[in-house]
Each structure stands twice: as structure tokens, then as C-alpha cells.
Amino acid sequence: EPEVTQTPSHQVTQMGQEVILRCVPISNHLYFYWYRQILGQKVEFLVSFYNNEISEKSEIFDDQFSVERPDGSNFTLKIRSTKLEDSAMYFCASSAKHLSNQPQHFGDGTRLSIL
Amino acid sequence: AQKITQTQPGMFVQEKEAVTLDCTYDTSDQSYGLFWYKQPSSGEMIFLIYQGSYDEQNATEGRYSLNFQKARKSANLVISASQLGDSAMYFCAMREGASYDKVIFGPGTSLSVIP
Fold it and tell me: pLDDT higher for A71 or B77?
């Protein structure tokens, strides 16, 4: 069964450094998302992306964050200058259609640890 | 106000017994979708089951069924014949008609299956 693939599974970065989290969505999906889950807390929406542009973003997704689809397969989340509070599990998700009845399929996540 | 409420932070169930995980939601939209995701200790997010706001029948998917009571705005997950591998966090989530982008997650219920 097709799946969303995220790399790396664990990223350790010094505070203030830039980090890029990578995702390969399911191949025929058109809608892409990033979520984060701080340890012990609920999953929070960050951003959605469609047709090479952001369609919605949360208040968490400030100027330090950016997303890109550099080629036909990858979807990346960049954090420019990481802070300690950016430590979390980051999930990429994709869906085939932009409808409320379509599930978003999640990757296994990247655990980001900021030192 | 919380959009998704899961009042059971932790639940225990005996192996082979059925268990119900509670979820209530809050929306003013007529069109919305409700989802349940499972997150094992390994961290990945696994889609389990979907219920649409206009669906008249309760959703079922193998051992999972959704007890949807629209007037009460509840969407409880029922797991029949619990297995040890069902031990995980379970998240109720909603995708509202007003925003087809983000999925809003509840705080989760930790389920432990006892042999």
C-alpha cells in the first residue's frame, strides 16, 4: 500500500541552526500538510499546500517556517533558526482530494530535537 | 473552546473484550468529517476509520466501528475483540466544512490492552 515517507526519522540540531525536514507524499496525492506534536501533547496543524502554494497556515507557522515542493515528489519543511520550543515530532501528510471525507495519510514522522 | 474533546486520558481493557473510546466535537458547519487515528509507541499516525456528517450509517472497518450520534455531537470509537497490538494512543479528529485543509485533533486517549 502506498505510504508517505519522511526523512530523517530523527534530527538533532543546535539552537539557531536551520533544519530541513523532508517528505515524499503518496504519488497521486495533490494536497500536502505539515503537523507537529510536542511530546505528550496533541497534534497541531502547521500548514497546507496545494498547487505550489500555501492554502492555509496556523499561527504557529510564522516567518521562521517555510515549505517547498522543489520537484515532483518531495515536500519539505524548513525552519530557519531553530528554537528549543521547536523540539517536537513533525508529521507530513497528504490526501488525494480536498474534501472533508478524504483522510489525510500521515508519514511516520521526524523527531526533531533542538539542543 | 475545544473543538474535539476526549474525556478519557487513559483506558484499560482486557484482551478479547470490546472497548469504547469517547469523542465529542464542536462545529457549526453542516458538512464535516470525523476521523480516528492510532499512534503506537513507535510514533507513526495510522488512519483507522472515517465518518461523514451526512452519512446515515455508522462507519465500520474490520474490528473498528464508529458510534456516531450527530445530535449529541459524539463519534465514539468501538474496538471489538481487543488485541495486545491495540495498545496505543487514539486520536479523534475533525475536518470542518469551512476549512477543508486542516484536521483538528483531540488530546488523545491512551489505551492499554491487558493479557
Answer: B77
